[in-house]
Specification:
Layout (H helix, E strand, L loop, with lengths): L7 E2 L1 H8 L3 H6 L6 E2 L5 E4 H12 L4 H15 L6 H10 L1
Antiparallel strand pairs: 1-3, 2-3
Helix pairs in contact: 3-4
């Protein structure tokens, strides 16, 4: 498994990944960003892939955000939904 931090990209790297300009990237308000050192947003390759797939499927708003969050959960090795995991720990 690839280390999660190895798949994080700076805004400039992300713009190149999308083959777009940094200004285009800043306009993508539905793309999930992570706070990085010094407040710089960081982007994850898996989340960017999910964003592209979601846009191709015509998703917007919460549906598009959920696709990206699900992609990040899988990258982190979280197989169960957060609410299911909480319920399981309460039952124990």
């Amino acid at each position: 498994m690839v280390n999660v931090s190895q798949e994080l990209m700076t805004p400039h790297e992300t713009a190149r990944w999308f083959r777009r300009s940094p200004s285009w990237l800043r306009q993508q308000s539905e793309l999930v960003r992570y706070g990085g050192p010094g407040g710089q947003p960081l982007y994850h390759v898996g989340v960017c892939r999910a964003y592209v797939l979601g846009r191709l499927l015509g998703l917007t708003g919460d549906a598009l955000r959920n696709v990206q969050i699900e992609a990040m959960r899988k990258v982190c090795g979280m197989d169960t939904a957060p609410s299911a995991a909480i319920g399981a720990s309460d039952a124990a």
